[in-house]
Structures are given as structure tokens and as C-alpha cells.
Design a protein that fits this description.
The chain contains seven helices and no strands. The longest helix is centred in the C-terminal third of the chain and has 11 residues. It has a domain of 73 residues. It is globular. The protein has 109 residues and is mainly alpha-helical. The chain binds iron/sulfur cluster (2 copies). One iron/sulfur cluster binds next to helix 6 and helix 7.
């Protein structure tokens, strides 16, 4: 192949037909409200822990929906369970409780 001086980056497209969403299904049974998330980011913007860590409920939900559990759990392990995100969520999702349920379902200590 001709050398054009650059190369294409690998696609980051997620094939949802291949993603394992079985555990996410268990989370939905326990916390049906997780499906109401519209990824607005208000929780992440208000998160105190997010200033010092990668904590982001928004990102965690998006990654869990795509079956990318390992990356998702990185976004909640810094959570201090303060509950600020629950106050600001426009969809009235109890995000603090959601974090506890994620820890339970995904065995995050
Ligand atoms: S504030 Fe609520 S709706 Fe917005 S991203 Fe966070 S959990 Fe989802
Ligand atoms: S409960 Fe966790 S994710 Fe929500 S604002 Fe507090 S530290 Fe951030």
C-alpha cells in the first residue's frame, strides 16, 4: 500500500450485537430508572469527586449500556456517595442509590 504519511485510527464503533449486556439487564431489573438517563451530564458537572478523580455517573451509565463494564466501573470507584448528583438529575434518577446497586451487581467493593 502507498505510504501517504499518515494512518487511519482504529474505529471506536461499538457493535451492540456483540456487546454482552446480560449484567446490565440485571441492573435494569434492580434499578429500572437507569433507562431514563438522557446523558445530559448534570450529575457529572455537579460531582465533587469528579474534580479529583474520573468519577462520572453519566459515563458509567453509557459504558454499562454498551457492555464495557471494566471501563464503566472506573467512573464510579471514586464516588463518595454524597448524593449531590441525585439532587440535580432532571430525570429524577436516584443516582446515589444507582451507584450502590452497580457496586452490588458488578461486585465492586
Ligand atoms: S443527571 Fe441524570 S439524566 Fe443526566 S446524565 Fe446524570 S443520570 Fe443521566
Ligand atoms: S454521589 Fe458520588 S457521583 Fe454523585 S455527586 Fe456524590 S461523589 Fe459524585
Amino acid at each position: 500500500m502507498a505510504d501517504f504519511g499518515y494512518s487511519l485510527t482504529p474505529s471506536s464503533r461499538i457493535d451492540l450485537n456483540k456487546a454482552d449486556r446480560e449484567t446490565f439487564g440485571k441492573l435494569v431489573k434492580l434499578e429500572p430508572d437507569v433507562l431514563k438517563c438522557m446523558a445530559c451530564g448534570s450529575c457529572t458537572a455537579s460531582c465533587t469527586a469528579g474534580v479529583y478523580t474520573r468519577t462520572s455517573i453519566r459515563s458509567a451509565i453509557l459504558y454499562l449500556q454498551n457492555g464495557r463494564e471494566k471501563e464503566a466501573l472506573e467512573f464510579i470507584k471514586g464516588c463518595m456517595l454524597c448524593g449531590k448528583c441525585t439532587i440535580v438529575c432532571p430525570r429524577a434518577i436516584n443516582t446515589r442509590q444507582l451507584v450502590l446497586s452497580i457496586c452490588k451487581i458488578y461486585n465492586l467493593k
